Amino acid sequence: MRVLLVEDDDGVASALAELLTQHGASVVLTTRGTDALHRMKGCDLVLLDLGLPDMDGLDVLRTLRRASAVPVIIMTARDSDGSVVLGLRAGADDYLVKPVRKAVLLARIDAVMRRLRRSAGEVGATTATTGPVTAGPVTVERERREVLLDGTPQPLTRTEFQILSTLAGRQGEAVSREELMLQVWGTAVVGRSRSLDFFIGQLRAKLVGLPLHTVRGFGFRLDS
To answer: Where in this chain does the record put each Response regulatory domain (predicted)?
Structure first.
């Protein structure tokens, strides 16, 4: 299991990293919220402090949630009922108030990951293998990495294909800008937003008739 640990207290971070490593986890440590958004891809769990030096942890969580469903456990000194409610409503899977006993932390991690595995099993049991996706005059062959326009193969760049493939895998759903950026560039930081707009424009220009719609204030949706 790969854990992203977002904690700006060196002593706390060192102790947590040692504990997690002893229990078989690979730890990615960062002290800043912006760095966390750059390094979240590929992580199985996020342990998130709220008092970060560059941005509030709740803002990190909200951005992360628009990009990924990765489990997040908040670990913070904020112990008011209001803070707990805000954290859970922002998308945290659990909320722990420091100091946290080692046994309690490990038990909470196990519980969150157990729920994730159970949910993944249920989804896997009901989801069929994804085949070609048809969107207007365009057919996306995701496994073959091929895109056809009216039956004619189209030369897309790697980035263009990744964006289209991600949207095709969620056809009919609105996909956030952050999730697309995470899938393509491995980061949900808004600095990539202009690049995303450029490639969306390229897809629309190359694949005339593609039903790719902008969801204002959120992201994009590929219809059938």
So the answer is: 2-113
